[in-house]
User: What shape does this take?
Amino acid sequence: MQSNVSVANGKITGTSKYYEGWASGPLEGPGNFLALKLEAEDWTDYTSVKIGLEPSYGTGLVEIINDPDKNCVFKIADKNAQLVKVICKNATTETVKTYSLRDLVLESDEA
Assistant: This one.
């Protein structure tokens, strides 16, 4: 699905391969996909963690705090306009981080 993907300095880099996609749901149909696994030192430090592409063309931000594996898959519609957005909340603060997709290489269906 991807190769050499890295998240650093507000950017996601690497290569997203063209994939035929799934038969139904928000990842339906062919395109370029990105898979990320979120990690935290201690997930119990958070009351909410939401992640998604912005702008979204389907699901919006998704709550993952109770997801046991914290794996996320995104279908990229426009790497120059979309960002991966993460909102983390605890009892007193909210932290928002965004990551650009502009440096991600999208392979075509002809690759």
